[in-house]
Amino acid sequence: YDGIAADLCYFVPPEDNLEIWRITLRNLGRKKRELQLFPYVEFALFDAVEEFYSHPNLHYFAVADFFPPEGAVIYDFFMPGRFADMGKVFFTLSNGELISGYDCDREQFIGLYRSENNPQVVEEGRSRNSAVIGGNAAGVLQAGLTLAPGAETTVSVFLGVTKNAADSARPYIEKYSRPEAVEQAFARLRQNWRDYLERLQVKTPEAAVDNMINTWNQYQCRVAFDWSRYASYFHTGTFRGIGFRDTSQDILGVVHAAPGQAAAKIKLLARHMYADGHSEHLFFPATGTGDPTRYSDDHLWIVNAADSYVRETGDLALLEESVPYRDGGAGTLYEHMVRAIDYTLRHTGPHGLPRMFRADWNDCLDGVDREGRGESVWTAFQLHLALRQMAELAVLCGRSADAARFRQAGAAIRETINRTAWDGRWYIRAFTDAGTPLGSHTCAEGRIYLNPQSWAVISGAAPPERARLCMDAVHEHLATPYGLKLLHPPYRSFPPGVGSLLNYPPGLKENGAVFCHAHSWAVIAEAMLGRGDRAYQYYERILPPQVSKRVGQARYRVEPYVYCQFIFGPDHPHHGRASHSWLTGTAAWSFRSLVDWILGLRPTFRGLLIDPCLPSGWSGYEAVRYFRGGCYHIRVHKPVGICKGVAGITMDGARLDSSVLPLPEKGAVHRVEVEMGR
Ligand code: NOJ
Fold first, then answer.
1. Closest C-alpha among 143, 133, 20 to residue 74
2. From ligand 1's centre to the CA of 362, what distance in Å?
3. Ligand 1 center to 361 CA (angstroms)
4. Are 520 and 483 in contact (CB under 8 A)?
5. Which atom of ligand 1 is nearest to the CA of 245?
6. Are 366 and 358 in contact (CB under 8 A)?
7. pTM beyond 0.85, yes or no
8. What is the pLDDT of residues 481-531, one digit of tens each?
9. Is the CB of residue 544 less than 8 Å from the CB of residue 208?
């Protein structure tokens, strides 16, 4: 701007509760320039959300002023030590000697009838040195800089929190006051991310795929895992806490790179299960509060999460760890999982399918089971998968009687589904309290739903012929250029027994939008069927850099490198617009759909399985995959024209007689060559 180049980098150093804003300014002109810098921040106490929408009483608990001994603006309680376990907020500059003024009173700084666009103090170029003793607190610093022609200078701003009320800001400020310390902290942060991302890197014929898998998709998986659905602009601010099903699924997106943290989350989830086997729907670990409403699916997801952890790590010991139940007593994680399954087996409806309770994965099918008889076909598939996973885990844990019981229950639910929920060309979605099917050819609206079809395949419950038929029906009725609709046709009337899905106009959210999370399951289902072209075509349809281009960025609207929850469906005039980016299960499932199912690098209990299902036009790909303490460098070669089939594998030059790679020694690097063929 006006001959001054500015570069601003915000980051949080790995070890400290500190945000650093590194500002570099360069004088591009021929004249010496005198600049005034005014870093600005608004402070909030206790409850950020409340402070955003009102001017609450809490403002009057706190004071803000500049403290020369600390060399910083400090925001704190009026009674120091009143909340001794809470730290204070500090705001300052790396070059403290540059500070020529400050303001802590927002009104003083901004001025009446003005905004952050035109603060009075900035226009006048002179701080008021105001303090705030209860009221609207801000932190503003003024620093004067002189820049010779062509000269460049870097200043860092620190916004931090001390550990407790007695702790001083000084050591943090000193630690980062030298520019090299800031650079080193940034380098450490970059290295942390490199270490994290390098555990899985791919090189495919598609640059957009590589870019997403190697960086952005993994980054989003990590963000979703860390935040669950907290702090979501789209999801009620901070009121969603840790969703049981959401976090269980987010685990799938990080377990390959952060298995220890995944294990800790699995245990945290298990602590929010009740002794009868169901779980809280969501909870807030910091306050210990939660929502105990029963959903048909929540508790079952723990099996899927634990299964993925054991496949990745081989660590069965986690299953034997004792975890308390939410309502008292304790049991091993394995017992929690058994109870989750038994809870669903105990709660079935008139067709012998799992009760829907409040809803299932689809939160908006909350009108199905108001009277205690509504059933979810989708949950029946989820149960079938959980039973298969539990049977395998039980064998590994030496509990063969359990394994037999799970297999038997699996066969029974499979028989029930196929007898009661097959509609002729696809699977029904649910039965309402009145026994009416949703997602059947008999329905005028909501005739076919996506999830029962993809999960018929994923769960292994559909016989091969039905598996193909129902996924063909998906292609026929649900495919759009921008992904698969969740159902068709969307509801325009208000039939009983559906639920809050009907609140949405046709083509939005659960009422027939392209629901990206569910879309990813269809990618997996197609790969499981061996239809590599269709699997990849679906995968690519919602790949952010591709779909945003196809739709046009102006219409698509959200970040072209982040998955979003949904894309407006064809029944809405803005078909192709996207919304709810970042905190969505799409991140984890899309990631797994490409890596595990299309590239076919799939963790099994015995080792990493190589089973690609690629688009026929590809000639192969390369990947680096860390696994169980070692690392595989994998090269897959494929004749153009086929999708599936492994003809031969060598590891370090030796031919293998199985597609499951031998487990690596700790720290070993193995070269794996895969020849595909019919
Ligand atoms: C978003 C919610 O976070 C998730 O839990 C749910 O499965 C989907 N919406 C579908 O309703």
1. 133
2. 6
3. 6
4. no
5. 5
6. yes
7. yes
8. 999 999 999 999 999 999 999 999 999 999 999 999 999 999 999 999 999
9. no
